[in-house]
Amino acid sequence: MDTISEGARVRFRVIDVFLPEGAQLLSSLDHRTELVGRVVGFSDHGNDMRAFAVVELPGSKVIVPCQSLRLIDYPGTRTKT
Question: With the C-alpha atoms ordered 17, 29, 9, 40, is the resulting torsion angle positive or negative?
Answer without folding.
Answer: negative
